[in-house]
């Protein structure tokens, strides 16, 4: 036996003892329990599959019916069709509100094929004011819409992550058709994933599980919520996790594929049941097809949980006795052949740890323990040699690290000096507060770049004929790139008002759009690697006539009087981007001013600032409420309230965008 390795000795002894116990237990256990467990597991899995199928259909059938009714509504179809009017949109939104009240999730969505616009409303949104965004074929998160338009005929039930509302839901995508039967959009509702999993998949029954898959085997619902959300976020269906990947045996995966095809092709066949091994457990799987939604429900019953432990108590006692015998023998042999030699090595290692590197153990056997002892002796000798030269190596490495640290500090210092200088240059183009004091009876500004410098700017120009130009703008980028854009835009605006026009905000924005595209060379192929531009709100104030002309590109003008807070929306056409229309005419809006009217211009940095318990943006509604609650304050005190409210809203989160808010009153 001494010629055998330790591994061989251990395997031979353990195998012999285990086989003796296994033969005795297996012959007794198999004959008594095999048929009982199989029959009971089959019955349990079949019953659960049918029960879960009916439970799912009771939830989804109602939502599908409402969704199909929604997409067939004449008012909604009239709005979704190309060339819709504002009146059609208003009527459709009112009609959608009536549907929303009856949906389980109190939500709906509409996606128009004509302009790829997307609207979504849930219980958190005010009536007739859905969220909206623009879908793009280039955005992988929007591929669901274009894919559904291409392949879905009536409706589909689909699990997906919605980037607009930042939620994963079970979506019912119903096709909207015009009077000729052409597809013009998609509408429907969603069911919250957490609620759906809690009600359908998450079960308190031990040893049972429910999995929902579609026709391709892609998992739509599973007790592992992370797996479901990962499938929802993955836009490429070929990369989503399927039920076949969870099966440990390829033959079981092929059998499942055949059963899925048979169930779909044989409506009278309700359930197919067979054994599978999944996640390391032997289970019975019962599969049932739901043709109404094109999904399958798979009920899994773990063999080990089919019967109560007390039912097989004699078998369990025999198994425990056999296992105890095996463990006793194995423990004795391990102690004799492994633990004792290892104790000697442990003691020697402790002495090395205390600094005695001259330790050497005798090599008594030619097995793994003997080779380990020999390796330990070599290690101790190597440590003894390296320790003699350790101090010299540490000093050398310390010098290298010190030199590298000094170079890093010098580089960082130069970068900070450059940023401080850039901050001084950017501050130099901001209007002097004394000019505001001379022009306005009351004014204030909240200017908070996200970094030392930023992409926001407020701008003032006096034309000399009793008129004043005032603007707030938000350029592409943050930090140094944003600061460069503000310098460029400042120069362009000054050039326009000095040479072309100083009293027509709409024309100034149109000319700025043209000059910026020429300056940045965004329309010349190969000249620009990035797209750049800005949002701007521009006011022309006639001090003598007490009036204001406003034009905006992505920025609105808010104003308050004795009664209410109002908003004049800017045009959606941004300025300077390569995709901006050079022929676009920005609309001028007129406003009469008096001492009770206060005007506000703000960039999206304040409106999008994340905070609150869920990290949502501050939003237009909170901003308007803040103005309404404090419109009696002077603007300096109001902006103090602004700053305090934003600090409370942001909490411990870091500011994520440049913030500029400018207010004035004549």
UniProtKB/TrEMBL annotation:
User: Which keywords describe this protein according to UniProt?
Assistant: Hydrolase, Membrane, Transmembrane, Transmembrane helix
List residues of the HAMP domain: 336-388
Q: Which CDD domains match?
A: HAMP
Q: Does the keyword Glycoprotein apply?
A: no
Gene Ontology MF terms in the entry: phosphatase activity
Against InterPro entries, the record matches this protein to: Bact_Sigma-Reg, HAMP_dom, PPM-type-like_dom_sf, PPM-type_phosphatase-like_dom
Q: Which domain of life is it from?
A: Bacteria
Q: Where is this region: Disordered?
A: 121-140
GO terms, biological process: signal transduction
Q: Does the keyword Cell membrane apply?
A: no
**What GO terms fall under cellular component here?**
membrane
List where the protein spans the membrane. 312-334
One Pfam family name is: HAMP
Q: Which PANTHER family match?
A: HAMP DOMAIN-CONTAINING PROTEIN, STAGE II SPORULATION PROTEIN E-RELATED
Name by which UniProt lists this protein: Protein serine/threonine phosphatase
Which species expresses this protein natively?
A: Trichlorobacter lovleyi (strain ATCC BAA-1151 / DSM 17278 / SZ) (Geobacter lovleyi)
